[in-house]
Structure formats: structure tokens, C-alpha cells
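Quick start: what a row looks like.
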Amino acid sequence: MDISALKSIPIADFLRRLGYAPVEHKGRELTYFAPYRKEHKPSFRVNVEKNVFYDFGTGCGGDIFKLAGEFIHSTDFKAQAKYIADSMNMQLPMKEHPSFVSQPTEPVFKNVEISRLESPTLLRYLAQRGIPKEI
């Protein structure tokens, strides 16, 4: 299960899984009572073709992640994805965190030469910065 699979879940299926049924079906739109707040007149619509919702009572709308955020009152994407996956009885992909990469014990540079600084450009730069050339 990856994020694109979560995003492709039909919002109507997601709402049905949570126990919400539409009160009206007109063309490609389903009308519900807002599932995350109380209202007396249904003003929550789902466009099944575009798989987006719009709540006319609050002016809020978007995809399934935004809807999950309304349910859990969070804008945290990971929390939204977890809520969707849990609600749909799916597994979220587990990404392994990169393990600590130890620093090499051998010198990284080879064939390094130490010489006097003689480049006029570099000497001017050091002077402009107030850095003595002896440093």
C-alpha cells in the first residue's frame, strides 16, 4: 500500500466504511450530512468522478487526505494517511530509516600537498576579509 493507493480510494467508500451514507444522489454528486460536525440540512457533497468533497457549511473541501484531517482535526499528512489506512483496514508502507553510516577511519584525501600560498587572487581575497596570510 502506497500513498497513491490511499489517494485513489473513493471518498464515498471511505465514508461508507466510517458508517455514513448519502442522503441524495444526483448525477456524479452524492450529498451527505457533514460527517464531522452536526447540521440540520445536508450540505456536504462528494463528486464521485473527481473523488473530491466540498462542505458548503464550512467552505472546506479537497481530497481524501483533507477529509481525514477534518475527522482527526489535524493537518499532519502522516496522521491523515494512518487514519485512512486504519479506517480502510489497510497497511501503511513501512519505510526503513537509513542506518547510521560510520565515518571512514582512513584519510579520505590522497596525494595532498602543502605549499606556500602564492596566488595573487587568493591573497587579495584574504586581505579583503582581514585574514592574515600566515593563517
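That is the whole record. The beta strands are 24-26, 29-32, 44-47, 52-55, 60-62. The longest strand covers residues 29-32.
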